[in-house]
Request: fold
Amino acid sequence: MAEVGKMSVMEKLKILTDAAKYDVACTSSGVDRRGKAGKLGNCVAAGICHSFAGDGRCISLLKILLTNECIYDCKYCLNRRSNDVPRAMFTPEEICELTIQFYRRNYIEGLFLSSGIVQSPTFTMELICRTIYLLRTKYGFNGYIHVKAIPGADGEVIRQTGFLVDRMSVNLELPTADGLRNLAPNKHRKNILAPMRQIQNGITQNRSEVAVYRHAPAFVSGGQSTQMIVGATNENDYQILNVAESLYQKFELKRVFYSAFVRVNEDKSLPVLPGGPPLLREHRLYQADWLLRFYGFRAQELLSERRPFFNVMLDPKEDWAVGHLEEFPVEINRAPYEKLLRVPGIGVQSARRIVAARRSCNLDFENLKKLGVVLKRALYFITCSGKMMYPTKLEEDYIVRQLTEKEQRIRFGSDGMTYRQMSLFDDAGFAGNAEVISAQEKWQTAMGQL
Amino acid sequence: MYVYRCEDTLESIFTAIYRVYEEHRPKDEVLLALDEEPRLFAEEMIVTADQERSGKVVRTLCRRFGMEDYERICFALTAEDVEKAQAVYRTVVSGLALREGAGYGRLFEGLGDAQVCKAFKLARSAERECCHLEGFLRFEELEKGALYAQAEPKNNLLPFLMAHFADRFPEENFLIHDVGRGIAGVHYRQTGPEAWVLIGGKGEKGAAVTKGVEAALSESELYYRSLFRRFCGEIGIRERANEALQRNLLPLHFRKYMTEF
Ligand code: SF4
Reply:
């Protein structure tokens, strides 16, 4: 340990950033907080991206580990006990200084602090809590803070931490208890769900407290999120999506993040994926996640036991639409909002605009273009005053062929995979504001990168 | 035709809008011009910015259309476009023609109208640039602890940026320098939320701004710079490297003043 003590901050930052980079949740959204005299920082509900890394992912928070020492041995993790890697540990003051100095220079939107497990989960959680307390009080930091709640830590420490941070997350790690048993022998599903439930209850209780006493301190006001690794174990998309759905419904999570498995350890229990991390799969899951949260879809509509994986060529909404041609065409001037939302090429913004604009006149295809509808994709599924844009067949094979035409196809090369941008959220050139979704999330999800 | 010649400021343009109503002009025969171009057979009015009149317009816009739409108008007017004043004028006229209460949050709904659509597009593009800069702007610490940032925004966004950072850094002395326009916003520590002013302009004043900020960097500035570069270098996942996507999300022209590039 003497050696660790001598290490420079630069050296520590290198090690503890490298060790933190597989955590996905780098958004700073969901909280609106004005600046305060005597303090440093505020929060913007839409979130702010400060930079983009070489992998195209947004840099918003100073994402680091408190330490990469760990008593556990999760097979997929670089920091596992059995790995011989350089170890480091920040002092609370070092973390505070870095956060403040980065923040003043507008490098970052706040801090994202996670940690390997030292001594015990409770001990680790206490270290995290102490660091954040110092940052909020002595250093007067009023910006965004996201921390990991360590499964198995004492509930009281988690509760105290909750009053200091904007977001908390507990990693589900793997979609099913089986997967967890295989790859993370020290972790138990039960221990992961317990703090999730605790945070959920804390948020609910806090909501009613704030309703009564306006100045009651806020508890995790940006909500909680989680993440799971995709492709390390053999769950299918249908299972994963069902898990996500129940997390949204039963635990009221703000976000579920998916992280394409990267093989960092040589371990025979880990799969070898010749194509590298399953990025397209991850992208499809994000798109489907979006459909669950904003488009009123249920997991069961999108996939089934019989068809448990997403289509590679079509996004989940198109895929659903061509499989349900009996629901189409939809008449733009009459269909209810919920039906409009289900049309490929019509997003939340454009559906709203349609509903607003058709009050004053009958809409035609020219109008739709102005309202941000992507006609190239919508035209197979809609009519305006009873007429289709071109005479087209309402026939599955034909439409699939049209939608996956050459230039529209997803290029998935090594140097620059270009997803069809905004494909699902469309609103061609009319990317909306932060009403429903933060701008930040919108960008990232649209690009399949979080 | 009635031509109101305005200066390129909110105050002047709002004053012109007020005068159109005050002077009972037929709304369709009015042009708000920012250029000097002579127009045949037109009656010309030179607009002098007037705080009281423009203030009244601001209040009316906020009341009738809400803060969000008002902000959009302001964003549209940050654009470098000689026809922006006219587009905003037409948008406001069509909004005010609605009965009281009907236009709230709906000023820009009539996108079928070319002028409204234009104002909307200008606003949207300025707003987007502003969002980008709120994230991409970089401050460096000068000798005595003040922070200094440079930018070359396409739109005249300094007031928006100052408001954003004044709320964020109430305890800092900082200066944001719009290099292209030769103007700067200066924020003084601890003097309340309205603690900032804009200085400079074309010619000599602009040069003075540049001179004023030639101060030396603080001792620790280079240290934090290199820490942040190290951080950015480590945080990307090699197996997912995707420079095209990075360039897509962070276009090259922003990188000129960014520490990490
Ligand atoms: S608990 Fe598991 S995943 Fe977390 S740092 Fe330790 S080994 Fe890695």
The beta strands of chain A are 51-52, 58-59, 61-65, 110-114, 144-148, 167-169, 224-230, 255-260, 330-331, 382-383. The CA atoms of residues 321 and 343 of chain A lie 7 Å apart.
